[in-house]
Amino acid sequence: MRAVAFLFHKFPARSEVRIALHWKSHSLVCMVSPSSTSDEHASRVQTHMTSPTAPDILVIGGAHVDRIGRSFARLEPGQSNPGRLRCSVGGVAGNVARGLARLDWQVALSTISGEDDDARFLKRQLESERINADLIITNPDKPSASYTAIEDRNGALDAAIADMDIYDSFSVEQIEVCIASLKQPTLILADTNLPADTLEQLVALKGDHRLAISAVSGPKANRAGDCLASLDLLFCNGAEAAILAQEFADPEALPEILMEDGVKSGIITRGDAGLTAWQGEKVWKLPAPPVKVRSTNGAGDCLCACVLHGHLLGLPFEKALAYGMAGANLALMSEQSVPDMLNRQMLDACLADIPQAETESQTS
C-alpha cells in the first residue's frame, strides 16, 4: 500500500500498557489509563456538518471494550509471555460505527452495557468520535460485554474470550425506540449479537429504511436465518454463509443458495482469497491484494464500514466493494481495529491498489 505505509509512525495506539501475558491462568489483569483521542482525529471530526438528530446511518449491536494482548516474541504456552495490552472500543457495531464516523458520516449507535467502568469508557470514546450514543441502554444486573484476545508477535489470533451475555437482554422494545427515533428513511446496520427475536422485530418495523446485517460468528449467524429475505445487504464470512445456507459441501455454491433464500445482495469474505459478492442475479469476485498483516482484528468490520460508505455515496455496488477491500487492508496493516489513518482521502488513495471486481457468473 504505497499511500499509507509512511503514515504508521504518526498514529500510536490510544490506550496501551506493557504487561506479561500469562497463559497458565488464562486471565489478564491490568490497570489502563486511556489517553485522549489524537489531535488529528479530533480536528477531523469537527468537519461533520449534518445534524445529530438526523443520522446518516443507525448501527445496532455489539459495542464494548476490546483488550488485545500481543506477545513480543513467539508465544510459549504455559509461560508468562512479555507483551503489550491495548484497550479500545470494539464489537462489530462499535467498529463499524467508528469507521463510518471517520469517513465523515453522522452515526447513531444503539447497544446495551452494564453500569461499570467499561460502560463509561465506551461512552466517552464514542462521544469523542462524534458518534451519537443517546440510544445506548444499560442493564445493571449484568457486566458490560468484553472481548479479550491473545495475538502472536505477527498479529495472528491465538485465543480469545468473548463475554457477550448481556447482548441477549437487548429487547424488542428497544428496537421500537430505535426505529421511532428515525424521522426519515435511513440506512440501518445490525449485527447478530442481537437475539433472533430482536432481529425479527427490526425486520418487521423497518418500513422504508434500508437494512444490512453483519453476522458476527458461526454460532450466532443463524440468528438472522428468518430475516434473510427482508435484508437489503448481508455481510458474512464463508463459515457463516454456510450456516445460513445450510450447505457445507461447495463454498462456490453459497451465493446462489443465499440468493434462492431471498438475500438480495450480499458479501462473503474469504480471508486472503478475497471476497465473493452478489446483487440481484449478478455475482462478482474480488481478489485480496497482498498486504503485510499487523493484526487481523477488525478487518471485516472495516470492510463493512467502507462498503456502507460507498453505498451512502450512491456508488455502484462493485465500486463499494473496492472501498470495502481498501478499508480491510488498512485495518490489516494496523494494530488498531479501526485505524486512525482511516478517512475519505486515504481510502480514495488506497483504491489504486485494489483490483477491479470481476463478474464471475450470471445466474439463470
Strand order of the largest sheet: 5-2-10-11-12-13-14-15-16
Shape: globular
Helix content: 25-40%
Number of strands: 16
Q: How is the biggest beta sheet arranged?
A: 9 strands, mixed
Count of discrete alpha- or pi-helical segments spanning 4 or more residues: 11
Strand content: 15-25%
Global structural class: alpha/beta
Oligomeric assembly = single chain
Mean pLDDT: 86
Rg on CA atoms, Å = 19 Å
Describe the structure.
By secondary structure, this protein is α/β, with parallel strands linked by helices. Helix content is 29%, strand content 24%. It has helices spanning 39-45, 92-102, 117-128, 172-180, 196-205, 218-221, 238-245, 254-260, 299-312, 317-332, 344-350, and strands at 16-22, 57-60, 64-71, 80-90, 107-110, 112-113, 137-138, 146-151, 157-163, 187-191, 210-214, 233-237, 265-269, 275-279, 282-286, 358-362. It has a 9-stranded mixed β-sheet, sandwiched between helices. Helix 5 (196-205) links the parallel strand 10 (187-191) and strand 11 (210-214). Helix 2 packs across helix 9, helix 4 (172-180) packs parallel to helix 5 and helix 9 (299-312) runs antiparallel to helix 10. The longest helix is centred in the C-terminal third of the chain and has 16 residues, at 317-332.
Give the key terms.
single chain; 364 residues; alpha/beta; 9-stranded mixed sheet; 5-stranded mixed sheet; 16 strands; globular
